[in-house]
Amino acid sequence: MGGESVGTPASSKGIGSTTGLEHVQGTGEGQKKRGRSPADKERKRLKRLLRNQVSAQQARERKKAYFSNLETRVNDLEKKNLELKEKLSNLQNENQILRHILKNMTASRGGGNSGTNNAE
Fold first, then answer.
1. Domain chopping of the chain, boundaries
2. Total-model pTM
């Protein structure tokens, strides 16, 4: 029938024109990428490489400062640990001396009362 043949070419033109527009748009985007000159690409590449080098150098400096700070902290903590060990040793010696003195005082008072005041 006549309506079918008229509708078919119109609908195929509509589909074709949509596809054609997409193809043209895709080509336009491709032209923008192809439009960059090799000099521009090289300039961008060198700029990116320079940024990368600067960033890498900064990262190395941060790492160096971090480890330097860490080493200082380790040295301080080791020194503090040594001081605390010496203090512990001195206090243990003092405690032993005081216990010995206390034992001698309790023994000289009369023996086995264990320090209680039952006489009072």
1. 40-107
2. 0.49
20-55 core/surface letters (b: 16 or more CB in 10 A; e: else): eeeeeeeeeeeeeeeeeeeeeeeeeeeeeeeeeeee
Share the mean pLDDT of the chain. 79
Find tokens 């330097």 and name the residue. 68
Residue 106 burial (C-beta neighbours within 10 Å; 0-12, 13-18, 19+): middle
Average pLDDT over residues 55-77: 98
Cα-atom radius of gyration of the chain, to the nearest Å?
A: 46
Residue 86, amino acid: E
Q: What is the distance between the alpha carbons of residues 33 and 37, in angstroms, rounded to a whole number?
A: 9
